């Protein structure tokens, strides 16, 4: 029983380290993926953002499939003005 | 002695974490798992994703760990190892870690908004804007300070720059493996670590000798180019390799310190004001926070903690381990450094033929240290000596030196190009008011390359011509100024939102503010004039920055005092 | 099917020439559909018949049609609204779908509508006729309308590029972390699973087709101008616009020539040639009478098109 507990404990530690490493390796890519999704939707929803938009039927046809991206748009819009600390954290200033 | 001090340090940290840290958690932050964190409430899979405590700890610790906790203590040894340790231990526990922890929790309670946002809310909008300015100055000064460290190290230890260049190649290859070929993660990691080891070994085989000036130019171009390349080409794989370097360095260093059993050859206490900065007598108070920053207190950490960590906190109870605990861990790292230098520094400097004795330490340490082992190299040699004195001496000392040197170099270089990326953003934010008035100027300054050039050019220039013992404290001054503002903001949060007894925070906050302000004034008035004479452009640049920061600091204090009277609208 | 566009400033006689060309081609034995996109419809007047949005048979070989841009715009809006109503169908329960009607006033509806009408004709009539002769609207609208397929293509290409990047990054994350499911939603990371990029590919194909037709061998653009300085500026603009769009300018018609304006005619031609006018310039003399059988003129217009 005790040996099992110890082995499991080691396994747990190793898996935590593994997760941690994967997070580290993927972290910035995740940020980039999200931001690209944000930009994708921003480009389509030109009238929302005041930028010249693509022919409107493109947006209309793609809209139903972009639910995730629109959520991204909403959340990033809320936090866009508060990005200094986030950038510092993401880029690992220290 | 090394072992004893290390164990004592560990015990003090753990004990006070339990007593003081928990007290903060209970009475001030009033952390409770029934309060859902933003990661839980606002889970959007975008920014707000709960991370498991150990994973988040690792992430946060890696973000705040850097080169500064190593370099600072080396300089601070001029006071003797007791004062240095006092600051690393108690400065950390009662001020630094408190600062980190409260910044994190305040941000958590503010839905993950940054400490900048919190300050703008609790004090005034102007304070929020202040952060941009201070960060910009900080970026410039950190390039100057770290640039000087790196320049000195590259010149003094030619194996390090070549190892670093090889590591960059390894990072590029790893980047391709991980992000282009989508190779199995474990396999790619393995290859990456092996390449890292090869880079370190390779560095010793083919050292690159170049002049200080050459390295300055190389670094300048490196900064510009590296901050323009996509992150998954260089930055991400490089940072990933760095984290492995950090682990190995810590493990080896920790083991070496514990098993070293060496007595301290450095004096415990030399003088209240030995020669540290600019060849002048540097009083322990108020100057120590300028010398040892990240090991015990650092404004950077508040940005990092409130920028990403707060949005990923799974439960409020995790905050203590992560915010408070990670800082203590970094303090432990600085303890390691103090121990290494205290144990081995004297012998190393004497070997190099420097004039150094226990009796004359106060006057002789800084010149001897700078003469024999420019800046960080003292650490690498002490570290190597410490490792060599234990059963770990099967690792060739050359290699250990390069490992230690790479450790410092990797983190310092990372900061350099991060600095530039942030610099572009900060400059464009600051220039927004100009946009209305003069669009041409705005467009010019925020042009991608110009905005990149400004911090890099000024920073490298400072590094090139400047005196390291001037640049380091000036970097410290910007950093600690941010820290003192953050701590006062946290105190404000405790008063206004927490409605808790603020003394536990307010007293250190005011003390810190007074200390930092005094230290900047001392630095400007006592140290800078000689620099201006010796090196006018550098001196004036730093002077201008310090004066502006000082003025902003007083404006902030006025705003803060006014805000104390202002009562907030009830929390919705 | 070959397509002939007659472009030019208003009043230069392009409607007459396009009508005459259509007539002459049909008399030669080809099946011809003549369509007018010009809001100031002259086609019906020239042939002496009343024309509508639906094509009308004039002779066995010649069909006529006047595109009503307003109707086209309404149809376009209705299509879009129905798309939105598909997605937000539940709004109909509250009659809130009526708010989508404001789309009718969106900028650019006119050219979308015109292009859509053109696409429809190209698709439906390609097998039925040998020639499609088109009388275009005023310069600005013509250029905007003809530019649309290319603009659309450019946008779609960029969006595809961006989307590929997104998918690539998602694939990387999936590879590193084993899954990428923010908010528990399975996000596609392969092209075959992503409805967005598939739609974009569809759009690209569709507009490539239209663009190929418009820029291809089977398309001819004729520009009509008069021997006077009034039409010079606008003709230059038109020529430049068409060249930018890489539309095949085949022939220019110098229309309403008389003995008096012969000299000016040569000057105007020289200027236009230096602006990029096609070298082949047909000189058409002023026709003394207009109106009924104005589509029957002597000068052979079809030489450049056969």
Low-confidence stretches of chain A: none
- Topology order of chain A in helix (H) and strand (E) letters: HHHHH
Helix content of chain C: 40-55%
- How is the main sheet of chain C built? 8 strands, mixed
CATH superfamily of chain C: P-loop containing nucleotide triphosphate hydrolases
Protein chain pair with the most extensive contact, residues per chain? A-B, 32 and 59 residues
Number of beta-strand segments of chain C: 8
Through-space gap between termini of chain C? 12 Å
- How many strands in all of chain A? 0
DSSP summary: helix tally of chain A:
5
Mean pLDDT over the residues of chain A = 78
Give the oligomeric state of the chains in this entry, treating copies of one chain as homo and distinct chains as hetero. heterotrimer
Fraction of residues in β-strands of chain A = under 5%
In total, how many domains does the architecture of chain C comprise?
A: 1
Structural class of chain C: alpha/beta
Helix content of chain A: over 70%
In CATH, the topology of chain C is named Rossmann fold
Strand content of chain C: 5-15%
Describe the structure.
Chain A is an all-alpha fold and 94 residues long. Chain A has a domain at 27-91. Helix content of chain A is 80%, strand content 0%. The longest helix of chain A has 43 residues, at 2-44. Chain A starts with a helix and ends with a helix. The relative contact order of chain A is 0.09. The mean pLDDT of chain A is 78. Chain B has 572 residues and is an all-alpha fold. Chain B folds into two domains: 2-158 and 209-565, Amino acid/polyamine transporter I; 159-208, no CATH class. Chain B has 23 helices and no strands. Chain B has helices at residues 2-29, 38-41, 53-64, 68-76, 81-109, 115-122, 125-156, 159-180, 185-205, 212-226, 235-260, 284-291, 299-307, 318-351, 361-372, 377-388, 397-430, 432-437, 439-446, 448-465, 468-498, 503-534, 536-565. Chain B starts with a helix and ends in a 7-residue tail after the last helix. Chain C is an alpha/beta fold and 306 residues long. Helices cover 47% and strands 15% of the residues of chain C. An eight-stranded mixed β-sheet of chain C has the order 3-4-2-5-1-6-7-8, with helices on both faces. In chain C, a hairpin with a 4-residue loop joins strand 3 (56-57) and strand 4 (62-66). In chain C, helix 5 runs antiparallel to helix 6 (195-215). The longest helix of chain C is centred in the middle third of the chain and has 39 residues, at 139-177. The radius of gyration of chain C is 24 Å and the shape is elongated. The model of chain C has no long low-confidence stretch (mean pLDDT 83). Chains A and B meet through helix 1, helix 4 and helix 5 of A and helix 3, helix 6, helix 7, helix 11 and helix 13 of B.
């Amino acid at each position: 029983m005790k040996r099992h507990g110890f082995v499991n404990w080691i396994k747990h530690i190793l898996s935590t380290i593994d997760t941690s490493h994967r997070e580290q390796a993927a972290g910035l890519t995740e940020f980039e993926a999200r931001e690209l999704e944000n930009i994708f939707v921003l480009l389509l929803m030109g009238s929302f953002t005041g930028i010249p938009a693509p022919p409107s039927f493109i947006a209309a046809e793609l809209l139903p499939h972009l639910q995730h991206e629109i959520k991204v748009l909403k959340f990033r819009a809320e936090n866009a003005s508060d990005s200094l600390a986030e950038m510092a954290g993401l880029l690992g200033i220290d | 002695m090394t072992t004893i001090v290390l164990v004592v340090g560990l015990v003090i940290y753990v004990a006070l974490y339990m007593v003081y840290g928990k007290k903060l958690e209970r009475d001030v932050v009033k952390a409770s798992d029934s309060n859902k964190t933003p990661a839980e409430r606002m889970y959007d899979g975008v920014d707000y994703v709960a991370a498991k405590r150990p994973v988040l700890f690792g992430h946060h610790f890696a973000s705040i760990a850097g080169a500064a906790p190593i370099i600072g203590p080396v300089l601070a040894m001029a006071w003797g190892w007791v004062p240095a340790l006092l600051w690393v231990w108690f400065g950390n526990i009662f001020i630094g870690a408190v600062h980190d922890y409260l910044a994190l929790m305040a941000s958590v309670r503010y839905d993950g908004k940054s400490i900048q946002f919190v300050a703008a809310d609790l004090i005034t909008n102007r304070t929020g804007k202040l952060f941009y300015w201070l960060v910009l100055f900080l970026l410039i000064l950190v390039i100057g300070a770290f640039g000087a460290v790196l320049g000195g190290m590259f010149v003094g230890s030619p194996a390090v720059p070549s190892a670093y260049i090889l590591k960059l190649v390894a990072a590029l290859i790893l980047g391709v493996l991980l992000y282009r070929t989508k190779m199995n993660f474990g396999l790619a990691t393995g290859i990456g670590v092996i390449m890292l080891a090869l880079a370190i070994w390779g560095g010793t085989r083919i050292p690159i000798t170049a002049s200080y000036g050459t390295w300055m130019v190389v670094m300048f171009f490196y900064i510009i180019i590296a901050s323009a390349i996509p992150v998954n080409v260089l930055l991400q794989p490089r940072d990933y390799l760095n984290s492995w370097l950090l682990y190995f360095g810590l493990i080896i260093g920790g083991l070496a310190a514990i098993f070293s059993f060496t007595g301290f050859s450095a004096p415990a206490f030399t003088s209240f004001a030995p020669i540290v900065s600019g060849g002048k007598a540097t009083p322990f108070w108020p100057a120590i926070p300028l010398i040892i920053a990240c090991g015990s207190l650092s404004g950077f950490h508040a940005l990092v903690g409130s920028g990403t960590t707060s949005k990923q906190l799974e439960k409020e109870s995790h905050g203590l381990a992560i915010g408070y605990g990670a800082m203590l861990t970094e303090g432990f790292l600085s303890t390691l450094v103090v121990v290494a230098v205290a144990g081995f520094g004297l012998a190393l400097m004497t070997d190099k033929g420097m004039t150094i004795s226990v009796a004359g330490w106060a006057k002789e340490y800084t010149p001897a240290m700078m003469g024999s082992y420019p800046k960080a190299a003292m650490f690498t040699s002490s570290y190597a000596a410490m490792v060599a004195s234990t059963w770990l001496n099967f690792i060739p000392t050359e290699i250990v030196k390069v490992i230690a040197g790479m450790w410092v170099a990797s983190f310092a270089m990372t900061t350099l190009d991060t600095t530039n990326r942030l610099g572009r953003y900060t400059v464009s934010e600051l220039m927004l008011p100009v946009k209305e008035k003069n669009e041409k100027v705005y467009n010019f300054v925020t042009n991608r390359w110009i905005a990149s050039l400004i911090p890099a050019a000024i920073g490298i220039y400072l590094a090139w011509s400047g005196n390291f013992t001037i640049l380091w404290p000036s970097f410290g001054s910007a950093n600690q100024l941010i820290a003192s503002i953050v701590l006062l903001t946290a105190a404000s949060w405790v008063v206004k939102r927490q409605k808790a007894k603020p003394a536990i925070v307010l007293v250190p906050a005011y003390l810190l503010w007074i200390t930092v302000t005094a230290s900047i004034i001392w630095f400007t008035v006592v140290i800078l004039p000689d620099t201006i004479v010796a090196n006018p452009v550098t001196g004036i640049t730093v002077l201008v920055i310090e004066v502006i920061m000082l003025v902003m600091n007083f404006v902030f204090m006025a705003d803060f005092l006014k805000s104390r009277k202002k009562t907030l609208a009830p929390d919705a | 099917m070959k397509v002939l566009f007659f472009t030019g400033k208003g009043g230069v006689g392009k409607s007459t020439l396009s009508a005459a060309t259509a007539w002459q081609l049909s008399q030669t034995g080809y099946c011809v559909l003549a369509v007018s996109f010009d809001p100031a419809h002259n086609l019906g007047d020239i042939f002496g018949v009343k024309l509508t949005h639906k094509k009308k048979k004039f002779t066995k070989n010649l069909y006529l049609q006047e595109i009503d841009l307003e109707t086209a715009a309404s149809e376009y809006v209705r299509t879009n609204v129905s798309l939105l109503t598909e997605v937000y169908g539940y709004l109909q329960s509250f009659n809130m779908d009526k708010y989508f009607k404001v789309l009718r006033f969106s900028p650019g509806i006119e050219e979308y509508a015109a292009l859509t009408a053109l696409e429809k004709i190209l698709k439906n009539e390609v097998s039925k006729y040998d020639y499609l002769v088109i009388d275009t609207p005023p310069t600005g609208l013509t250029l905007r309308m003809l530019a649309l397929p290319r603009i659309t293509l450019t946008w779609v290409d960029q969006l595809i590029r961006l989307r590929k990047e997104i998918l690539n990054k998602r694939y990387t994350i999936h590879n590193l972390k084993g899954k990428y499911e923010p908010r528990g939603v399975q996000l596609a990371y392969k092209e075959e699973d992503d409805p967005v990029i598939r739609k974009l590919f569809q759009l690209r194909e569709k507009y490539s087709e239209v663009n190929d037709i418009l820029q291809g061998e089977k398309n001819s653009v004729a520009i009509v101008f008069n021997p006077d300085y009034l039409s010079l500026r606008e003709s230059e603009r038109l020529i430049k616009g068409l060249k930018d769009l890489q539309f095949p300018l085949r022939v220019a018609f110098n229309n309403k020539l008389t003995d008096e304006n012969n000299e000016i005619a040569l000057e105007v031609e020289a200027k236009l040639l230096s602006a990029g006018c096609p070298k082949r310039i047909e000189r058409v003399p002023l026709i003394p009478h207009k109106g009924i059988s104005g589509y029957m003129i002597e000068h052979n217009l079809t030489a450049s098109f056969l």
